[in-house]
Amino acid sequence: MSSNNRLLQIWIKRARRGPMDSRSQAQLIAGRGLVDNSDQGGKRQVTIVSREAWETAQADLGEGVDPVARRANLLVSGVELENSRGKVLQIGEARILIHGETRPCERMDEACPGLRSALDPHWRAGAYGEVVLDAEIHIGDSVSWQSAE
Q1: Within a domain: 1
Q2: pTM as predicted
Q3: Which CATH number goes with the domain that contains 123?
């Protein structure tokens, strides 16, 4: 595993369409999601975007936009999220089962015109999943793919 495979940012969404609060650590609970996050339970407990995909979208857009505009919970580096459905992403001690691609919505164009289409290809808008092993995570934690259990 490369030393670049890291958790770079954590954001908690207080309410639907609400502000995204930056955190240095967060608690993930199996079957529930991020403590204090508005999305709890179901298959979309955590949303993840990769720094590399975000930077590619910014290059296509020709404009820099802060990744908080994506409204994802976690920003990671060094892992490819495209076509990761069914894989388990380990962040620190926590594990997240990826259920699918997070499709960019109209909120992206509210943040920056053209952002939605820049995020459209290759899962650039990220992935969503369900917490299957809970733990506290911290910025700087290692990130890697695990075999499904």
Answers
A1: no
A2: 0.94
A3: 2.40.33.20
The beta-strand segments (E) located in 17-149 are 20-23, 25-29, 33-34, 46-50, 74-77, 88-91, 94-101, 127-133, 135-138, 143-146
Cβ density class 68-78: b for 16+ within 10 Å, e for less: ebbbbbbbbbb
How do residues 110-126 score in pLDDT, each as one tens digit? 999 999 999 999 999 99
**Residue whose tokens read 């917490």:** 131
CB 104 within 8 A of CB 58: no
DSSP state of 53: H
Please state, for a pLDDT cut of 90, what percent of the chain lies above it.
Answer: 87
